[in-house]
Design a protein that fits this description.
Number of strands: 5
Mean pLDDT: 91
Helix content: 25-40%
Order of helices and strands: EHEHEEHHE
Radius of gyration: 16 Å
Distance between the termini: 11 Å
Strand order of the largest sheet: 3-4-5
Strand content: 5-15%
Number of helices: 4
């Protein structure tokens, strides 16, 4: 599982694919599954929106949960590491709402049957 900031400030599809290829080759993606969790550096860069075309999202969200065998994986997206009103974002960020949405999601997840049924949680 790649836990964010693996595709640092992507400027083009070519650059993003280069990062993905190196990481996938390093872990042997032909033999083991790979999961990417977005970090704040994947949010930045000219091609950041294009990453949605290269990666799948659970329920079309950058956070989610899934069960694999007897293990429940819960993934959260903390958004950017600076406040939403930081001048470089020009009022375009709303990670506060993203975090609020995830608070509700996490509460539902922790009380849901799949989570409670899992023998292991990560």
């Amino acid at each position: 599982m790649f836990n964010g900031d693996c595709i640092d400030d992507p400027e083009s599809e070519k650059e993003a694919l280069k990062h993905l290829a190196i990481q996938c080759e390093t872990v042997g993606v032909d033999k083991v599954p790979v999961i990417y969790l977005r970090g704040n550096h994947e949010i930045r860069g000219a091609y950041s929106l294009g990453l949605r075309d290269l990666l799948d999202y659970i329920g079309d969200k950058t956070y989610g949960a899934f069960t694999w065998g007897d293990t429940r994986f819960v993934m959260l997206d903390c958004g950017e590491d600076k406040p939403d009103d930081t001048w470089v974002y020009y009022g375009l960020n709303d990670f506060t709402q993203l975090r609020n949405d995830q608070q509700w999601f996490l509460s539902e997840e922790l009380n849901g049957k799949p989570f409670k049924k899992a023998k292991k949680e990560y």
